[in-house]
Structures
1.
Amino acid sequence: MSLRSHILFTTAMLSGLGAIAQDPQLSQFYAAPLYLNPALTGNTYQDRIGLNYRLQWPAIGPGYKTYAVTYDHRSPAMNSGIGAMVMRDQAGSFGLSFTQAAVSYSYEARLNRRQAFRGGVRMGYTMRSYDPKNLLFADQVIRDNAPTSIEPTMLQSVSYIDFSAGLLYYSEQFWAGASVNHVNQPQETFFLDGDARLPMRISVHTGYRFALDGRSFRHSETQMTLAAHYKAQDKWDQLDIGGYIDHSSITFGMWYRGLPGLKAYQPGYPNDDAVILMFGYETPYQLRMVYSYDVTVSKLTMKSGGAHEISVIYEWPKHNKNRRYRAVPCPKF
């Protein structure tokens, strides 16, 4: 069951509890490194700009739309990276929207030429809002479809400061990291006298790359990457696990999302969500593009319309394999 399937905004409104919501998610999690883990800020040769777009469940009403723009820069003299991110998410029929502008910083401590630790922090300013025109409260139905509700006064928008932090270890072929989001658990209720703290989101991610063509890893032209990403927020959690192959300028792979056989949120409801198929291409000018499609395998079935996701990443200057510095070997997509 997806984290996103638990955005029970309408139920929360009617019960007067506030806003219960989980964070936006991306199937191409490594294509949004600043969102995944602030320790990945500046894990490039110098500069990087990224664009992400996701449309989830388009066959169910308006679905969920997520947009993100990121930029980060590595400063070799300071062993540091700085970055900025703007993300917007629109959920469901009630116009529940999430907009965040954030800045991040990372520092790298090298153990040797091929191993290092990175630590990072992110501070964001978030605005949440909704469209009240489509809301229908129980008291309106009881009062013969009255045009207005007598429920407690609600704000149409809220804003708050949000802090996150992360750590990462990497070697030439292996990496493992973790991040904690919403460290300060900001208040996000729409009710004047309500209390709805945004629960912390824990993310753990790891991966390993190896050659497939019989050459040494450094000189290989065909490599495979295996990676996993576990995340938990409040009582909801899920695991993305899979792999992909890089051959020349082409990338293709498959991922699975869920926790089958390990956890069910209720009897008869297996924790399956989606199988993700992906295909990408990198131009000679270091412009990387990828498309992925989520094949829904939960009880929503393909009547949900699955999910479409596109990412575009551009890095400069051109990579030089003879440079002493080696970027974190995380997946391109």
2.
Amino acid sequence: DNKIPELNKRLTTNMTERLTNMQKVLERASLRLGEFKSANSGTDTSSAESEITTAQARITSALSSVSAQSQKTYSADSFSSEENLGSTMKALISQFEADIKATRDTVTTGKSSVASALKQIGALLGKGEGTGTGTTN
């Protein structure tokens, strides 16, 4: 009965840390894109900016999902006898597994979106570097 809440806390803490790191990476990439845009005013960066906006929204959504998951409680208090304990615990574990999978899926979606944004930004920065006007770091 105590292991599920402990596991939930550990998993949601890990997911929050991963999402926070993804946010930081996206912020740094966004700053680089801004610098690139300033140095290369004729270059269309709207696609990359759109990807950044989408990624930020998905990270925010995932953080909300993880926060909601971290607040859930899983308890086998509802069993009435030793005979019901096995089925009650199976149902509790099954519910936890479904909930954590749904939460993990939102984190994965956010990660994919950040990767897509970084790919767009990388393609733009790579084009600009060849002209001598882009950033090189």
3.
Amino acid sequence: SCLSYEFPMPIEVIKVMSALAGNLKGKTVYCPYDSLYLIARQVSEQNGIPFVETPYVSPIPWLISILTDVNIHTIVSSDPLQRPAFFEGDNPKKFDFTIAFPPLGQKIDIEVVDKDLFNRFKERTSSGSVLTLRHIIAQTEGKAIVAIPGNILFSRGAEHSLREDLLHNEMIEAVISMPPALLPLTSIPFSILI
């Protein structure tokens, strides 16, 4: 099963993830898959500069801007894996931070890996979680705080290769296992990877 893009994430989890980033004032923060703009809103409240990339077009960010003091102005409707939208020249843009709660358990067509023009993906896999982490690494200069499914931590294959690479390159600061049944309507276990 897959947790879809528009699945509501508990605001308490979003606040924890934002707090784990530290001081966001004036920093660029990449928020892929944030279709309900919960992460972008939290980043904006911490005086960060959110960049949202989501496959869905929605009036929600403008409603949030009208009804609150939060200004969400950098929004792109594009699939981050298939058609990344933020660039510096010919390369993916590097953000100061990434805070992301991507879809959990998503399977991606292997063509996405085969047709990638930016060499983001070391593993040839259909695991959306592995590919999303590779994409986030390609677009993050500093710290990334990402919700990951439990299988990333224990599975073999592409997940094992990713873990090995992250450990070898000293890219992991912490893994925080979240309590079960925290997400509404699903029992998918997840952790927060920093």
4.
Amino acid sequence: EFFGQLGGFNEALITGEDYDLCQKVRQLNGKVVNNPLLKVVHFGYPQTVYEFIKREQWHGIGDSESLRALFASKVALASLVFCLLHVLFLGALLSLSVTYVLASFLGLVTLLMISALRKYRGKPVKIIAMNSLVFYFYFFGRTMSLKHLFSRKK
């Protein structure tokens, strides 16, 4: 009944229908709970790093629907920081500035480590370190999705 009041899933969305539905639940003072007894199946789970990047590029399309969506998404903002740090790193390399190369590299490592720490809080250091690398490819894919913001037909 409540699902009907929410209007169901927004079929106009390419990705993020579940997130959108949760936002509508919260707006109507509903409660979103995690039920570990429910099983979710994602068909086409990525088997390679390339497939993972492509999937995250697709998942990020919703964040690049508009500037409003972009600035409302912590992931999209982190992806912008990820991109900026790469631009700074490349600029520092070209200018042969060791200080700026190190600063931008440390900024990137910090972003990846903070992301992994937030996601895997309380897990062993090895898990956090390995997932920092995974976050590199995650943000790479999400950064690639931002091209949709600029390539949409007006």
